[in-house]
Write a structure and sequence with these properties.
Order of helices and strands: HEHHHEEHEEEEHEHEHHH
Strand content: 5-15%
Largest sheet: 4 strands, parallel
Structural class: alpha/beta
Helix content: 25-40%
Number of helices: 10
Distance between the termini: 74 Å
Oligomer: single chain
Radius of gyration: 21 Å
Length: about 350
């Protein structure tokens, strides 16, 4: 009797499945569980790599939901600087499953985050998305007003979603001790003030992430029973770790936990799939060529390789639309754009 490996396909062996494959086009790496079409109403969210997914879907003319970007002829750079057009709503990077679940609950009035307004140098920030207003707002009341408008936009996106594309980014997070509110950044990093009596570091486990994903799936299907989920894992390493260990070990631990949870969850549900963008970017055959020199940011070649895999698998063969040029702005133009954006949000 022969070995159980004797008749396995090439993809099952490292030599033929990885070492013998071009890193930008690994054969049979992605076998979709269900069809994804350009007509599906797609909601995007997640960590920073999710911005690349959103941008490429939009460039191809797919039906990507965007409920918050103001109408008008604004330079793309100005919009992005204020968090517009990066995802389906202006939530900024959503790094953890806990943060995403918390946002959905809040959007439907089922939860309210603790300590919702942070201050820095007399300016005020939304603690749940402190980087979408780089200079902050002039009062806590304006922050709350903007938050209410944002939550309405999140609700609108959720209610029309056919496919939720969610990129898992981190396991490490910071919590409000008394309430369990999770923040996208550590207090004091962008705004606010860190207080060890109030804030606590936490690293989500596989079990916790699975529970969050299950709750998210149930909520999404309550809005639309036919809605599906596509999970990815961000290949971007941690900027820093509060675990007490080395950032490299913490990164490997975080990504391993996220990948394990994504794989287990997608395997358990017919309406949830996993897209291996993480594997494309981190493939040893690329010899770090899919990263920029800082070894964190994903190079455009890596993004293109991952998205080419996605579009090829979903029979989307036409060439991508030309990329819109990024407008260069001097200081005065940037001020004008900021004023125009604020005015547009009020309408």
């Amino acid at each position: 009797m022969g070995s159980p490996y004797d008749h396995l396909p090439d993809r099952a062996f490292w030599r033929t499945g990885v070492a013998g494959q071009p890193p930008a086009a690994v054969a049979e790496l992605y076998a979709p569980k269900f069809a994804i079409t350009p007509e599906m109403r797609i909601m995007t969210a997640g960590s920073c790599f999710a911005q690349h997914v959103h941008r490429n879907l939009v460039a191809r003319g797919w039906n990507v939901i965007d409920t918050e970007t103001p109408a008008g002829d604004f330079p793309r750079e100005a919009l992005a600087r204020f968090g517009y057009g990066l995802y389906s709503a202006r939530y900024g990077n959503v790094y953890t499953t806990r943060q995403m679940l918390q946002l959905v609950h809040e959007a439907f009035g089922e939860a309210a985050p603790a300590d919702p307004v942070w201050e820095r140098d007399g300016r005020f920030f939304d603690a749940q998305r402190p980087n979408v207003e780089p200079g902050g707002l002039s009062s806590p009341e304006l922050v709350r007003e903007a938050r209410a408008a944002h939550l309405a936009a999140v609700r609108a996106a959720l209610l029309q979603t056919d496919l939720f594309v969610f990129t898992l980014g981190l396991t490490e997070c910071w919590l409000h001790r008394a309430s369990g509110t999770v923040y996208p950044t550590a207090p004091g990093t962008i705004a606010g003030r860190y207080d060890p009596a109030t804030h606590v570091f936490h690293a989500l486990t596989v079990a916790e992430i699975l529970a969050d994903l299950a709750a998210l799936r149930d909520l999404m299907r309550s809005f639309n029973p036919a809605a599906k989920m596509l999970l990815t894992v961000s290949p971007v390493p941690l900027t820093a770790t509060a675990s007490g260990g080395h950032v490299l070990a913490a990164t490997v631990m975080s990504k391993a936990v996220l990948r394990a949870a994504a794989g287990e969850f997608s395997a358990a549900h017919a309406d949830v799939d996993y897209f291996p963008s993480y594997e494309v970017i981190t493939n040893p055959a690329a010899r770090s060529g899919f990263y920029r020199p800082n070894l964190r940011s994903v190079a455009e070649e890596g993004v293109e390789a991952a998205m080419a895999l996605f579009f090829a698998a979903h029979a989307e063969a036409e060439p991508p639309a030309p990329r819109a040029p990024v407008a260069e702005e001097d200081g005065d133009d940037a001020v004008i754009c900021e004023e125009m954006l604020i005015e547009a949000r009020r309408k």
